[in-house]
Amino acid sequence: MKVATIQMVSGSDVPGNLAQARRLMSEAAQDGAELVVLPEYFCLLGQRDADKLAIQEIYGSGPLQQFLADSARELGVWIVGGTVPLSVPAPAGDGASGDAANRVFNSSLVYNPQGQCVARYDKIHLFRFDNGQESYDESRVLAPGHEPVLFDLPSRDGHRWRIGLSICYDLRFPEMYRAYARAGADVLLVPSAFTYTTGKAHWELLLRARAIENLAYVAAAAQGGVHDNGRRTWGQSILVDPWGDVLAERAENAGWVAAEFSFERLTACRTSLPALAHRVL
Length: 281
Prior knowledge:
alpha/beta, 16 strands
């Protein structure tokens, strides 16, 4: 199964971001990709964190979700829509208040080649970082999700791949990925917008570790460059095999990379080193 990760330098122009995403996905599909993964915040990386609130959509309806559905159907591929801001339902009898008014879910949506949304994962772990020069706190605008999510992808190669969803900062919580391994995940997806500072220090190390310890493929689509709000993201969209070998990567700027995920390779790694069967906890 050929998997492609899309790298972008999204900004505050939503139509421009969508046009770029569509062009890159089309190129990857023409190259034979069956699964295409967009980065976190592919649709908007605005001037302020709160800009997400203005483009939020109710789950199941909206131009961003329609864009993903149409793209999957027209290109004939599986698409993981990086992240889309989805509305937090207001508590019953409580109008638009609290989280429902001031926060959104940062959600990864999966569309099959028929354009149907088959899975939704809301980012669980919300990033906070302050080194005295850079400061981020996603909890100001985002509401956390609560459940890990897997989906099955019946590939053209005849295999049914079990795929676990995660987003960016989730990468630092290995227990989440071990839960996916226990549930039979073959592939782990990590659409991200890692900061340049944390990406330089830990990005590749963490991704390869998640692949090795869970004997699974990892595909991470990233934001990579200097955005129009002045923020710089690390990039290095990457595909890693179950032995921790890097199959393909792109350093910075918009583009895409792809690699073949082999069920035979996956089985060979798990057979020669059956670490998943040796767990005692």
